[in-house]
Design brief:
335 residues, alpha/beta, six-stranded mixed beta sheet, four-stranded mixed beta sheet, 32% helix, fatty acid biosynthesis, lipid biosynthesis, lipid metabolism, ACP_syn_III_N
Length: 335
């Protein structure tokens, strides 16, 4: 049975960079407050008229070029901000990339979306349903956060990261090991957009404008994020037969610098082995992990042979982790 192996990676960030100072000009907050609680100094937001599909296409094109532009058999897009509630984003992305009439669908697991998508892509390859899969994590969270809510507006941002996976051998560099995934729907209201779905629409009650925005109960999310991420990461390390000291690079979802530090501490992974780019890009949800992978590989912080641990936590609640040996592949962060 074939294993999914990384063949190339690419990323895209919108040109518009939004500093903390820009946000503090209209929000009741300060640069120091934002940096001390989130670790974020600036983030990228899309311009009017740009959509998640646009982000996904740019990142996908770069990943395909990095992998040799030899085509794919399937496309998986992980996103919480589709262009429309219906249809899925992926088919239009596939069309715009010129991929033909391939299988194309979305995966929705909020900030864990890329890892859920990675497990899905790996399953397509292991099951013989695809030889090569393009996986894209893309989100435009600036379109769903309340611009007046300092608890979310300062954190979330836009971007896309993409990865081409090919069928290969489980022992070769870049082979994706078992993805440890979990969920807890009893706590689904900790991270949500209350309005716009069938639950609210069928209730017969009009939603308030605030109910159409993304909301998060930060303190509760922090507690569960740390606990579940550590559990998933520990399970992934056990599956790989690794100790935390074996990890050369820990690539966590870029949710919040405090969460990253707490998880690293509990796993006993040194800070110098824990990579981060949240200070410049913010929390990009499903795009977070591939954006960090692409940036780290392109700038030498992630090198062939590094033992890598990936982990994430998101709405649902959802969480996941996996391990791999980083391969000698091209990372495209520009054209």
């Amino acid at each position: 049975m074939s294993t999914a192996v990384i063949a190339g990676i690419g990323s895209w960030l919108p040109p518009r960079q939004v500093s903390n100072d820009e946000l503090t000009s209209y929000l009741d907050t300060t640069d120091e407050w934002i940096r001390s609680r989130t670790g974020i100094r600036s983030r990228h937001w899309i311009d009017p008229g740009t959509s998640t599909t646009d982000l996904a296409v740019r990142a996908g094109r770069r990943a395909l070029a990095a992998a040799g532009d030899t085509g794919v058999d399937a496309l998986v897009v992980a996103t919480t901000t589709p262009d429309r509630p219906c249809p899925a984003t992926a088919p239009e992305v596939a069309w715009r990339l010129g991929l033909g009439h391939i299988a194309a669908f979305d995966v929705s697991a909020v900030c864990t979306g890329f890892l859920y998508g990675l497990a899905t892509a790996a399953g397509l390859i292991a099951g013989g349903m695809a030889h090569r899969v393009l996986l894209i994590g893309a989100d435009a969270f600036s379109t769903i956060v309340d611009p007046k809510d300092r608890t979310t507006a300062v954190i979330f941002a836009d971007g896309a990261g993409a990865m081409v996976l090919r069928a290969g051998d489980p022992d070769e560099p870049g082979a994706v090991r078992r993805c440890e995934l979990g969920s807890d729907g009893e706590l689904s209201d900790l991270i949500e957009i209350p309005a716009g779905g069938s639950r609210q629409r069928s209730s017969g009650e009009l939603a308030s404008p605030a109910d159409h925005y993304f909301r998060m109960r930060g303190r509760d999310v922090y507690r569960y994020a740390v606990t579940r991420t550590v559990e998933a990461a520990t399970a992934a390390l056990d599956t790989a037969g690794w100790l935390p000291s074996d990890v050369d690079r820990f690539i966590p979802h870029q949710a919040n610098v405090r969460i990253t530090e707490a998880v690293s501490d509990r796993l006993a992974i040194p800070a110098e082995r824990t990579l981060s780019n949240i200070d410049q890009v913010g929390n990009t949800a499903a795009a977070s992990i591939p954006l960090l992978l692409a940036d780290a590989a392109a700038h030498g912080r992630l090198r062939p042979g590094h033992r890598v641990l990936l982990a994430a936590f998101g709405g649902g609640l959802t969480w996941g982790a996996t391990t791999l040996l980083w391969p000698d592949v091209i990372s495209r962060t520009d054209d």
